What does this fold into?
Amino acid sequence: MTVGTTPYHSTLRTGRAGFAQLLLAEWTKFRTVRGWAVGTVAAALVMVLVGLVTEALSHNNGCLGPPGQACPAVPSGPDGELVDDQFYFAHQPLQGDGSITVRLTSLTGLDTYPADHPNEIVPRVMPWAKAGVIIKETTRQGSHYTAVMVTGNHGVRMQYDYIHDTAGSPVGLSAASPRWLRLTRSGNTLTGYESADGAHWTRIGAANLAGLPATVQVGLFVASPSDCQVSPGVAGGFTCRLTQATGTFDDVSLEGSAPGGVWSHDVVGGHGNQAVDLGGFGFKESGGTFIIAGTGDIAPVVMNGGGRRIEDTLRGTFAALIVVIVVASMFMTAEYRRGLIRTTLAASPRRGRVLAAKAIVIASVTFVAGLAAAAVAVPVGELLLRANGWYIFPLTSLTEVRVMVGTAALLAVVAVLALAVGTMFRRSAEAVTALIGMIVVPYVLAFASPLPVGVSEWLLRITPAAGFAIQQSVPRYTQVSAALLTTMNDFYPLEPWAGFAVLCAYTVLALGLATILLRRRDA
Amino acid sequence: MSQAVHAEWTKLRTAPGAGWLILAFIPLTAALSATAAAAVTCSSPGCGLDPARVSLTGIDLGQAVVVVLAVLAMGGEYSTGMIRITLTAMPCRIKVLAAKAAVITGVVLAAGSIAVLLSVLAGQFILPGQGFTAAHGYAPLSLADGPVMRAAAGSVLYLALIALLSLGAAAAVRDSATTIGVVLSLLYVFPVIAQVVTDPVWREHLQQFAPMTAGLAIQATIGLQSLPISPWAGLGVLAAWAMAALMVGGLLLWLRDA
It folds into this structure.
């Protein structure tokens, strides 16, 4: 009879406890709770459906004329973006290389019935009223150009092809201190200069306009953008007033092969809204002094009655976010509610790794769902909007990818934030409340409440709702009136990546705090 | 019934979260109202701003706390298993729901009145300095003024109806976090959608139908003709939502195992 000995160790091979196993464990938990899988799919569906419903209910009544007739075309610039291209232009043809030099002695302006003087026309120069020299491909709207100008309130600028803007000296214009401007063409390179005395010149910048024809138009221009103000109390309301600027030029000299002598003058872009005669509109020349009065603007368009942006198809992100918050916070709080957390931590005692595994699983799942939803919502939404008579603001494919992937990333980062907050509170109701207070309520208050724009913008700077800025497809051009770049016009106060960074900072902070609490506290 | 109400009151009084929520609700509401009043300016006659609506902006935020309070009164019982004891002690389930509704309504009416009073007081002090003066066509904000009184009292009723809607939803859904998500989506998603829908008819329908936009019509004191829905009819829409939620919640509570 032999006496068997019980082995000290099990003869079975030890199970491995690497990070991959932990990930698999967390994925299995996520996969097998039906509510979470349903919730994630629901988030994607809600995102698509909310977008489709808003698009189906939005017809562009402004220019839905006879069936099949498109909206009147807005000129688009060389890079495909929508542009404003309307100004008063006194010009001559320029053959080959050459330059134009002028002295600008005054820039004045008129504002018609502005908000503070609703019953009169007041003298006022718009901050972005422009007067200066320009070399333009043709007088066609949207053609290439480079201009050096003095502005109402932004000093001397050199601008080209609508979206490019370089600041010169920040000085204003007065009778005592006129400003000399010079623009030279050499091949496709146009260089801008300024001077305070006509003798000492400072280079502002250079533009390289590929494909500029041999003969271009060179001359003087004046433009004055509308005075747009957010109207208080009216949701999404702007009032825009017609304005006019008048520039006085002298010492005009043209070099190069220009025939000289004969100035043509045109209103580029037609008369447009020139129904109001403000007096002095147009062109006067006497003894080498040119007085030119113009209205309009040469700048990218950020607001257009017939236009929609790609992020308009992603309105549902906001609704999907609420679902993601609930699912992701419960991914942690359910462990506490059921006591599963004790098993989880017994199986994997390094608690930081458990949180990391959970974060990776919930972020990946949410990212995939969000990307799938965006991949459906954007193209289908664009089709619907076009069918309803809207023009879609053109954008580069890089921006389009950033908006779609950014939307998925926004949802994924919020999911991690929700997981961290869920770990801190350990109870779902409190966690969901805190998260909705942090993200959803600021968003609603900013976009759909009587709060004025200033407060709305602060909400979108300092709360995690700043992350929505990643969806912004139209840049915040510096050369566009600041009144147009507000929440009223669906502009976020932060640049896309800056806003996203605010959300990520909150998430990192919450994740750090959650790790500390998870390690310190008894489960 | 009075025993049932007393039992529910004791539960609410002794639940750890409820007191804090009510304590948070009042200052949050009043603070946002005061912020809104301090942030707006009316620079000219006919600036189109509604002083009552501005000074009651805090309700937009305060309602979220009311939702949580009401949901936890029901959902909390499910998460702890207390519901089984409750239903053993009071087998008539509709009576339980009614008692909860009565207690929550009472508490929200009381706390809501304080929050609304503070908000209106803040508006009274702050708004004249922001250009809401007789010169710009605004009478001083006062509860003696019929429409302002209606806006203030209506806001308190609005909060109570939001609480009932949440309670009904919690009885139907049974999980606190999910219910909070559902109710807050219902409240907040519609105004954002209505903001971007451009078809005027559909926009108006959305605003007439959505509980938050319809219910908050009660706060309007100017431009009543251009409202998507008249003040009391709007509150009626919210009441219909609350009734429907309570009926569905009550029915499910009655039919299902706890």
